[in-house]
Amino acid sequence: MPTRVHAIIVARPGSSSRAQLLRTLDALSLQTRAADAVTLVVCGDASSARDSEAIARVIEGIIEARSSTSFAEAIDLARPRVAQGSAIWLLAHDTAPHPQALAQLSGALERSPSAAIAAPKLVDVDNDREIVSLGVTMTSLGRSVELAAGELDQGQHDGRDDALGSDIRGILIRSEVRDPLRPDPALAGADEGLDLGIRARLGGGRVVLAPNARISVHPDGPAALPQNAAQRAFVTRLAQLHRRLAYAPAISVPLHWLSLLPLALWRTVVHLIGKRPAAVLPEWAAALTAMVRFGAVARSRQRIRSFRTASWSSIAPLRVTRAQLHRNLDDGHGSEGGAVSELNFFSGGGAWAVLGALVVSVASFTTLLAWPAIGGGGLLPLRDTVTALWRDAAWGSRGLGVDVIGPADPFAGVIAIIGSLWVGAPSFALVVLWLLALPLAVLGGWFAATRITDRAGMRIFGGVAWALAPTFLTALMTGRPAAVLLHLILPWLFHAAVVAHRSWGAAGAVSIILAAALACAPALAPAAGLLWLIALVVVLAHGWFHGAVRLLWMLAPTVVLFLPIVVWQVRYGNLWAIFADPGLIWAGGQASADSAGRMLLATGFPTADLAGWMSILDPTIAMWAPLLLVPIALLALASAIAPRWGAGITLLAVTVIGLATSFLAVGVTVSFAQGTAVAIWPGTGLSLAWAGLVGGALVTLDTAITLPRVRVVTVTIAGLALAVCAVPALTALHTERSVLTNGPESTLPAYVAAEARGDRAIATLVITPQNDGGLASEVIWGASNTLGAQTTMLSTATEPHGTDISILTVDLLSERTFDAPGELAAHGIHFVLLDQVAGEESATARAFRISAVTALDQRAGFVKVGETDKGVLWRLDSVTAERPGLTASEARTMQAVTILQLVVFLGAVLLSIPTRASRRAARAQSRIVGRSPDEPLILPKRADDDLEPAEEKR
Questions:
Q1: How far is Cα 573 from Cα 798, in angstroms, rounded to an integer?
Q2: 273 pLDDT exceeds 80?
Q3: Element (H, E) at 806
Q4: What is the pLDDT of residue 938?
Q5: CA 768, CA 292: separation in Å to the nearest integer?
Q6: Would you place residue 943 in the very low, low, confident or very high pLDDT band (cuts 50, 70, 90)?
Q7: Could you point out which of 139, 400, 503, 551 has its C-alpha 20 to 30 Å from the C-alpha of 848?
Q8: CA–CA separation, 135 vs 166, rounded Å?
Q9: What SS3 state is found at 949?
Q10: CB 264 within 8 A of CB 283
Q11: CA dist., res. 610 & res. 583, Å (int)
């Protein structure tokens, strides 16, 4: 005699749920083997269900439960209505069984006396050829794994009848084990069927699959996982952790409990590398929740213990191995959807272009090969040790001034990274940077061009054009490290930013690159913010909300990097100072803030020297040098009417924004160099404008000029014009028209450098009489004034920061009698250096300097070391106080700032690390951004493409 079957249906209120429930009840009525009784549990208001005649014809009873009742709790509420000896069929309002479903499930139990549970094949309600679930297993660490989810049903799994567990929807539980095999409410709606299967296996039973018992399910029913990704990640991870605590031997449960938070930290790293940042917060929430549910774990363990008759080894054969998991879930085949475009860096000539640029760079900077350090312009040596480099990049005591404590400039972090690349002699890293600047610029420009064109020649042209930008060559010749680094960073920012909305990998990379770019050029922050806002509006307009979230993340590293210095400047009422140029403030030549200067900027040149042309030709002839940029400018303008006009107009907008930035910057003065006001360097805005200009030219060449010969001639003309324009700058070092110098390795005398070797905390007071009769003083800590020690806290200050020793400096050179060595030593000063102003010294400054030498020679306690090439040096003959450390509150601030910045940047780095899946996803999409659907693809040419068939030759 067949076993009685009692069906329990769990439903939610609502019109959609009611329609699905009626469909499920109709399906029950059509069963070839009808259920003997049906109980409905409504989680919410059940009044509409009680009033329905259609429901009353099928249902023997209705139970109303709270709306928060879970599926497992609802099943428990209905169990008392199930008659003794009846099997239980678990359904939901969205599970519509096919006519043979119950007959097949009952038959599976009857044919398999050892089976405790019969599981159906769940199929999608909209496509019954797609398998939703047919058996569940788990890894050795407890992760649940679907055996056939998402596959097309071709009967490939119909021969399988044994599984570790299953989806809980539609399962039929044998009457003899229905009491011990109750769904566990502690699992929060995930892995409930798997848990029942494991408990059945431990009780001597098993789960038998019935592939011919088909049930159509919706993805959002009461027994389904939540549709929200964060909620789904939370309940899935919580269920896994709960099962781990419930299944573990009693002696190891405390160890598992202690490992929950370390595991959450480790899995946070894994989630970020796997480009799943949305799973980080659910991971921690699940870990914390699992830690405090002692009662739920105890009840789950008691259920297992009361029913268990078999060993845990009986489960091992049904677990999935790592190799099977990789083969079944991540085989990597057929998921690309066809690669749209390949990189072809070597076959496309990109490597040869970079190598050629290296040859040109060595020829242009040959003398740098013998220099241990590079100086001149805004260049300074770096610290002697990597530790000191990173100390300058952290919140704390600054390398200049007395008792100056506060945030470091973000640019100091960029310098620390560069110096760390040459550990033995960090200053030499700048020499290497200058030697590799041209090939690195070509490399960056080539990769940026891959977002615009597939044509190998156009990519090479883009790389070369980027490297020959007048503003970049001017920065190289005038020693502006921040401007040089910005120009090298911008193409990578473009390469990653245009696809940041597509993937977390690109968003993570661009967030780091953006922070580095703005660290080198804070004046670009308004332009970057405007472009970011435009991108956000475009993404939201297309409904790409995940892309919008990725764009929001782009700003996170920049915000935490600049927040300390912004707070500092706001605190002192100097908000505009956040846009100041970082590094050494140098009053070098640059375009003026009048109409003539801005007209010069509009031609692409940041200085009146026109990238060296004014130095080698008569000014009446050299003034026409900007005409050499006309070909590329015309090509860029034509992009607005090219077939890919959307991309062209966007790139022209970038050019306009860059020019507007340079126009504004040249008129803003927030920095000072020994009392002289210095305007913001306008070349950074021109670098941004040049990016849009070169990009627009590539759009025109790639889409508007269709005749190959015309394209070649056009590229040749534009390329030759740029090459000619670059000749004066590239030959400046050999013709002694550059400010670059061999070193120095230290800006202080060798005696001081030797005393402070290893970046010891030794301070030197540097006094410099000015040409206007004034006096400049500066306290330098360590063996040299270094690039990383520069801070906009001091270069933009309109009032003294730290301890003001200006009065002490003036008194030192006056006739006032006081304990000068003692007061200086109390501030930690060991040496006094009398320097002379750079350039031509006026008679006033010379007289002031001579009288200062006399005054210091006459003071007791000052031991004259001698005259050096850096100035006249005295040593204090007194016990010098140690440099004070940070107070307790300052130390806490330093720790908080450092931890916050490290956490955010670590997250960005982990997101940016490419994985197999992220690379495969990137290859599945077009490398070109903004390409219209009807544009032809430019495929790489094969070796046999030019071979004609013999028939055609004849």
A1: 10
A2: yes
A3: helix 806-812
A4: 55
A5: 67
A6: very low
A7: 400
A8: 4
A9: coil
A10: yes
A11: 24
